[in-house]
Fold each of these.
Amino acid sequence: MSRKFFVGGNWKMNGDKKSLGELIQTMNGGKVDPNVEVVCGAPSIYLDFARSKLDAKFGVAAQNCYKVPKGAFTGEISPAMIKDCGVNWVILGHSERRHVFGESDELIGQKTAHALESGLGVIACIGEKLDEREGGITEKVVFAQTKVIADNVKDWSKVVLAYEPVWAIGTGKTASPQQAQEVHEKLREWLKTNVSEAVANSVRIIYGGSVTGGTCKELASQKDVDGFLVGGASLKPEFIDIINAKA
């Protein structure tokens, strides 16, 4: 089964209306491969702005949300609010949410369940830290993270799994195409065993961690790499080159 290539841009806490407006103009005017699904993760305060300015062919994602529709949760946003802005995706479990803000596997699972129940697509992030890779427990860590997500998913067609080795995010170190393929393949095997063969074959597993115009083509050629979650490079014109990695 062919899986539609998926490229997410995670703008993180970057940009203002001027710089993001320029980036959006570049994207709207760029030649992009029509066979690629593209979603831009905007800061929550700019979700409305991004959705109103970006061409309809591009999706928009929130970078986080909470696990209930509304209430006394100062500083949080809900899937209902995200959808009200015309936005259809959310990034959950990013390593910065896990390791900078202390989000637990359990909370990320609860958020995933609520986002999916609310009709959002979820880009669910998993990945090991450097000491975990060096300790030889990469699989143990990513399988445990994946299990908590899987336990909260009923409809896998709305989920993209993003494998992001934490040691490669924003460090300039990229997992080699072979390292990425190895983990993606093992994740697919885990899904086959623990969810179903159909889900394992259809779900998109994308790679994140210092993806650039220079590294994207070889990564994209790996059998089980179905796209990217791009950080810093998604704020630059080279994002177009990354979208077109398979072209």
Amino acid sequence: MGQCGITSSKTVLVFLNLIFWAAAGILCYVGAYVFVTFDDYDHFFEDVYTLIPAVTIIAVGALLFIIGLIGCCATVRESYCGLTTFVVILLLVFLTEVAVVVLGYVYRAKVEHEVNVSIKKVYDEYNGTNSNAQSRAIDYIQRQLQCCGIHNYSDWQNTQWYKESKNNSVPISCCKNNVVSCTGSLTRHADLYQEGCEALVVKKMEEIMMYVIWTALTFATIQMLGMLCACVVLCRRSRDPAYELLITGGTYA
């Protein structure tokens, strides 16, 4: 019965180590996705706190690849030292992922305030030229999120760009995709996106943070199972001399 249990634990552990290799790639992808997305929205954040979970999760992904290698070798050879190292590193990674989850929730709560503070400043610095970083950022999110202005298209009337242009229009990026002849004129507001960008930027960033949180939670759960299986193998080795002799090929005196 005990031998069956140890064999099952080893089988599950080897399978989990293969999952860890896949998880390493997924975690690195998630972290890279947050980096790329943040680059498109960084003008709406005065702090780069959003990148902290992303950096952490990429580091965890890289470490998981090494953990999977150590775990497979230690499990197949049933190395006490290797399995102990595996459990310790896995515990550290587990605690790191718990920290990622906590940071994700903390920073997610700050997103709305951060966007509210900075978005008006970004819109005020819009000048409609491609050389201006704020202009590129505004045009990008208005096309990408299909929005216009902070709360709606009428917000553009309070910007310096609108007052200087004096053509009673908003940027072309406010035009709906299916309207070919749209010029951004406020006299044809039906051609413009009706929803403001502030709420959509907040929603997008909160979704990204939840993406990170759920990814970390999922793999933290898998790592708990990995630690449990490794502990079963270690406990069996340390408590059963007959099992130790069996795996080393020894005999009783």
Amino acid sequence: MTLPLTTITMTSSVVFGTYRNCLQCLSQARGACSNTKLDVFLSGMAGGIAQISVMSPGDIVKVRLQCQTESKRRGAKPKYHGPVHCLLSIIKEEGFRGLYRGALPLMLRDGPSYATYFLTYKIICERLTDSGKKRPDWSGVMLAGGVAGMAGWTIGTPMDVIKARLQMDGARETKRYKGFYHCITETVRTEGVGVFFRSLGINCLRAFPVNMVVFVTYEVLTGFLKDAADGIDPPRIGFE
């Protein structure tokens, strides 16, 4: 988990930075002061796709090392000695393209997933915001963030299954899948459609608390940075 934890700050920065900049560009293009829900959806999708450039290498290392841990429990000799060795081994054996194996399903996962994620957050926040206020209170932000995380993973879980299978294909045994579409059809043929949602429960259980913290942190930091840019003393923690 060392490499994914190292890259998580970069991926989050790319996602939220792309999202905010796309929102600003879309509102300026229309000459409007506010953004529509379509703006939010498209900006979220752009953010999800953009972060793949920094996320994919760390993600494939995480998947390879996790599967290696399962093999060690069965007595198999580990192939990788750590995240850095795993990263260098993939580059040596598969080239730099190997770091982006599974990038297409990752893109199809994170594009729609983040679009749904940000749109769900905006809709719930609007519903929970009292008249005369710009944002809901902290409990509203936490609820909106948690539900948004669950909604995003509900959309993204099927492609997450395909992504993991393509990343591991050929790593422990002979290559099984010919490509993206063959992986989907072969998975459905042998295991049924239900396999795409087998991990949905645990994904949602993890997503709710994680994204509560993510959006509270996001709102606090953007509030402080906006006030600092406007020359206003930062308020005490809490929404007005």
